[in-house]
Amino acid sequence: MSNLERTLSIIKPDAVERNLDDQIKKMFENQGFKIIKEKKIQIEKSEAESFYKVHETKPFFNDLCTYLSSGPIVVMILQKENAVLANRKLMGATNPKNAEQGTIRRKYGISIDKNSVHGSDSIENAKTEIDFFFKE
Ligand code: IDP
Ligand code: MG
């Protein structure tokens, strides 16, 4: 049974700043993800606060939003069979120290906050997050 899904991926400022975007995109493509849409943008802190609203009560919320809006990011719609889960797997654990070999965060992540990539964590959130960045 085919289960083609779309998910939202963000290459975060720490990775864009180190010019890792092409290498990270290649990791997606090598795993069979198709990049449906992409754009390099910088967002306002208020937009980061809206994007990360689920985390608004967390102690790291303010730093997280300051960080995500601190420099250019690459936002992409990725498509593949079971894309949401497949992307989470390819990204690796939130803390790069705990991420498995071969994952993006293990390879490129610097720390729990500068962990190079974001990926939607459910099909429902993928839809919301894709609309957030790409709704025309
Ligand atoms: P995820 O990105 O793996 O889905 P979430 O728990 O959704 O992880 O957290 C969102 C982002 O917030 C993480 O990617 C990371 O950048 C940051 N973050 C999560 N937990 C911490 C923490 O304990 N300290 C600092 N930043 C954190
Ligand atoms: Mg998350």
Your description of this structure?
The chain is α+β, with helices and mostly antiparallel strands and 136 residues long. The protein has one domain (4-133): Alpha-Beta Plaits, CATH 3.30.70. 41% of the residues lie in helices and 21% in strands. The protein contains seven helices and four strands. It has helices at residues 13-17, 21-30, 45-51, 61-68, 83-91, 104-108, 123-134; strands at 4-11, 34-41, 73-81, 117-119. Strands 2-3-1-4 form a four-stranded antiparallel sheet, sandwiched between helices. The radius of gyration is 14 Å and the shape is globular. Inosine-5'-diphosphate (IDP) binds next to loops.
Order of helices and strands: EHHEHHEHHEH
CATH superfamily: Nucleoside diphosphate kinase-like domain
Number of helices: 7
Could you tell me the radius of gyration in angstroms? 14 Å
The CATH class is identified as Alpha Beta
Return residue spans where pLDDT drops below 50 for at least 5 consecutive residues: none
Instruction: Name the ligand types.
Output: inosine-5'-diphosphate, magnesium ion
Brief synopsis:
This protein is of the alpha+beta class and 136 residues long.
How are the SSEs placed, and which strands pair?
Elements: E1 4-11, H1 13-17, H2 21-30, E2 34-41, H3 45-51, H4 61-68, E3 73-81, H5 83-91, H6 104-108, E4 117-119, H7 123-134
Antiparallel strand pairs: 1-3, 1-4, 2-3
Helix pairs in contact: 3-4
The structure holds inosine-5'-diphosphate and magnesium ion (MG).
Inosine-5'-diphosphate binds next to loops.
